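Q: Hi! First time doing this. I have a protein sequence and I read that you can turn it into a structure. Is that right? Here it is:
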Amino acid sequence: MRTIFQIVFGLLVLFVLGVACSEEKTETPEVDKLIQQPINPNGDSELALLMRAMEEEVKRIKEQVAKGEPITITLNHEEILTAHATEPKKAASPEYKAFAAAYLQAIEALKTATPGQSTSIYDQMINSCMSCHQAVCPGPMMRIKKLQ
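A: Yes, that's right. Below is the predicted 3D structure, encoded as structure tokens:
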């Protein structure tokens, strides 16, 4: 009886391990992976996560501009107007909304820019980021300078 129990138990363990190891993992688009990576121990706001994803996209855009390639936008940058912020009052301020509008205009202009126009539009976009962060949230200014 004890041997039968050991055999059944062993088979059960093998079955569970087999199922656990054979689970099919689905790939999440790279953008979703970026947005879902909190780094703060107390959690990150939607806006903080979105801005980190925007930074990664802007790095890619910077390369496209440098190479004279067509600009591809994969994120919904409009979410900067609706994403929950760490400090909601700052994101609700008229200053933030004005800077966000300038940033979004630059993103829209980049979508249709010729290679000759893209450098100046890119610079305007980075300047709008820097201006906003100087006025509203100075923390990431060093990271933005690296995008210039």
